[in-house]
């Protein structure tokens, strides 16, 4: 038996020997695994990036190929997009041994190349965890107070707990409420739209009751429903205005739809005049391109007479993305709590 093999079989007799042995095996092994993960994800991103460059003249090709690749390989579309984002942010990989994939997943959100390099060096030097790194880059990616003041006329300050996830509000599609009197009943479809009931349709129903609307515009009582289940719809995203504002086609009923501009509930993205604002919009467009179905739940208009919405995206991989929280979790938005901006001007 060689000396190296014999050394590996030595049983540590003191705590110092145990500590040294565990450091050599567990911690060193973990670092090697992280290094391999970083190289693997970068190389994956490189392959995708170079392939897309060859087909950059084909509209929507990127979204199509990413979805197909995720389906064929059984991997998350989001992971593939993160790999692509990684190689675009770091076209030449000189990964630092002190940093793992979680660190680089945060760093790619820094648009400015110089700032990104500075953050990478500081994280490696100071031994920051990925969470500590995220706390330090958030003001860079989101709340450049000067930029916000210049574009909105209102100085921005970061409220405490701004990255706390939202509790999603999601009801049931096709669920409505009956309004009116005993002589004249209507169905509240939402968005100040109403459907008058015929005598046959109104038979057995009363104001205040919940009903389910089927594809033939028949209404069935929904005795188990509650108010929080209302105002949930199938929808299509027509255009991403900015990180937190979208034009939607909303299906109120089988033959009834409307076009509405919605603001995402509970969060605020940087203004479009900033680099971070453009990055937030691109992030939403990337997720929307993967969506196979869209469900929205709306709440009453806010003081600016805006409908606020929770948006849920189904993807080819079977994953559902809660868009509001995806923006928060990836550093493209902050919680709106206690944060006031006059940010509802029409886009240029």
Structural notes for this entry:
With 348 residues, this protein is an alpha+beta fold. The chain has 3 domains: 141 residues, Orthogonal Bundle (Arc Repressor Mutant, subunit A); 54 residues, no CATH class; 104 residues, Beta Barrel (OB fold (Dihydrolipoamide Acetyltransferase, E2P)). The chain has 11 helices and 13 strands. A 5-stranded antiparallel β-sheet has the order 3-2-1-4-5, with no helix packed on it. A 5-stranded mixed barrel has the order 6-7-8-11-10. The longest helix is centred in the N-terminal third of the chain and has 40 residues. It starts with a helix and ends in a 13-residue tail after the last strand.
State the main characteristics.
single chain, 348 residues, alpha+beta, Arc Repressor Mutant, subunit A, OB fold (Dihydrolipoamide Acetyltransferase, E2P), 3 domains, 5-stranded antiparallel sheet, 5-stranded mixed β-barrel, 11 helices, 13 strands, disordered C terminus
């Amino acid at each position: 038996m060689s000396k190296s093999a014999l050394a590996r079989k030595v049983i540590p007799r003191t705590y110092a020997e145990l500590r040294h042995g565990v450091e050599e095996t567990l911690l060193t092994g973990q670092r090697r695994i992280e290094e391999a993960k970083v190289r693997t994800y970068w190389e994956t991103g490189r392959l995708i990036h170079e392939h897309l460059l060859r087909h950059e003249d084909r509209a929507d090709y990127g979204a199509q190929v990413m979805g197909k690749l995720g389906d064929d390989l059984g991997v998350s579309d989001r992971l593939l997009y993160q790999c692509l984002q990684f190689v675009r942010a770091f076209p030449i990989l000189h990964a630092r041994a002190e940093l793992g994939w979680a660190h680089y997943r945060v760093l790619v959100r820094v648009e400015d190349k110089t700032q990104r390099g500075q953050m990478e060096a500081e994280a490696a030097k100071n031994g920051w965890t990925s969470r500590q790194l995220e706390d330090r880059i958030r003001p860079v990616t989101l709340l450049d107070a000067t930029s916000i003041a210049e574009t909105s006329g209102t100085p921005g300050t970061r409220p405490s707990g701004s990255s706390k996830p939202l509790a999603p509000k999601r009801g049931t599609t096709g669920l409505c409420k009956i309004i009116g009197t005993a002589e004249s009943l209507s169905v509240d479809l939402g968005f100040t739209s109403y459907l008058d009931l015929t005598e046959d349709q109104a038979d057995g129903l009363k104001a205040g009751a919940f009903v389910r609307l089927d594809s033939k515009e028949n209404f069935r009582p929904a005795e188990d429903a509650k108010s929080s289940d209302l105002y949930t719809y199938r929808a299509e995203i027509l255009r991403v205005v900015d990180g937190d504002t979208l034009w939607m086609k909303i299906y109120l009923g089988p033959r009834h739809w409307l076009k509405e501009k919605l603001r995402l509930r509970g969060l605020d993205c940087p203004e479009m005049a900033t680099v971070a604002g453009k990055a937030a919009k691109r992030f939403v467009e990337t997720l929307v391109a993967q969506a196979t179905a869209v469900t929205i739940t709306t709440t009453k208009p806010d003081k600016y007479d805006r409908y606020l919405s929770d948006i849920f995206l189904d993807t080819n991989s079977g994953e559902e993305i809660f868009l509001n929280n995806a923006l928060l979790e990836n550093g493209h938005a902050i919680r709106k709590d206690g944060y006031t901006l006059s940010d509802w001007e029409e886009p240029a």
